[in-house]
Amino acid sequence: MNIERISPATIRSFFGKLVKMSFFDLGKQQDSVEAAYLTDMLTEFARTEKLYKLQDSKGENIETIVEILLETRNVPEEQTESEREVRKYVGDFSLFMSGIFRDYVNRGSYLKYYMDEGMKSYFVVSRIDLEMGKGDPIMFSRLSREFEFYSGALDYMRRVYFTQAGTTTDPLSNFTYQISKLEH
After folding, report:
1. pLDDT band (50, 70, 90) for residue 7
2. Is 68 exposed, middle or buried (0-12, 13-18, 19+ CB in 10 A)?
3. Coil, strand or helix: which one is 121?
4. Handedness of CA 28, 116, 128, 49 (dihedral sign)
5. CA pair distance 61, 54, nearest whole angstrom
6. What is the DSSP letter of 60?
7. Any residues with CB less than 8 A from the CB of 63 and at least 6 apart, and which?
8. Which of 146, 149, 113 lies closest to 23, judged by CA?
9. SS3 46
10. What's the rounded Cα separation, in Å, for the pair 180 and 184?
């Protein structure tokens, strides 16, 4: 089943349910702003072109935090909104990869680096939001402080709710299989 054929509303509903179930299992408030944020992020990143939305100078998809930071290091400080968007993306990418693709990140010994960069990036976003007087500085501050929990919650969700007997170990294949059953 091709993910492109599944409606965004179905994907969002699917992830919303799984995030709430995971938060419940882990003793976290299910109807929090962070649960909604994670649901939106998962819905967006379910489409590969959104997950790898940055490209290097050669037009190739950037697929690691190091590449993202190297490619975007020359954002002038006066371009606060650009810095915010890059940092938000780094936080989201770090959270997604360290949660949903934790096994891959662990195999490369990147987990601590992804955790540190995710925390730092969400902290920068919260600071910029506070300075600009818009956005949600409190939520991004919480995502920064509790990054390890949210990453762990996504890993938990993958291990508990994405697992399907007889399917591959690729979380998105399992997700696509499960969500395709909802569309029929």
Report:
1. confident
2. buried
3. helix
4. negative
5. 6
6. P
7. 52
8. 149
9. coil
10. 7
Length of the chain: 184
Boundaries of domain holding 121: 3-183
For residue 161, CA distances in Å to 21, 36, 41, 68 come to 9, 18, 17, 30
Question: What is d(CA 35, CA 84) in angstroms, rounded to the nearest whole number?
Answer: 21
Look at the chain and report how many structural domains it folds into: 1
Instruction: Give the span between the Cα atoms of 58 and 170, in whole angstroms.
Output: 28
3-class DSSP string for 25-40: HCCCCCCCHHHHHHHH
Q: In the structure encoding, which two tokens stand for residue 52, read together?
A: 């790898």
**Helix spans in the chain (H):** 8-25, 33-45, 48-51, 65-71, 80-100, 102-107, 111-132, 137-145, 147-161, 171-183
Tokens of 184: 């029929």
Amino acid in position 54: L
The pLDDT of residue 81 is: 73
**What tokens appear for 35 in the block?**
């649960």
How far is 43 from 31, CA to CA, in rounded Å? 17
pLDDT band at 165 (very low <50, low <70, confident <90, very high): very low
68-123: per-residue pLDDT in tens?
Answer: 666 666 655 555 678 898 899 999 999 999 999 999 899 989 899 999 999 999 99
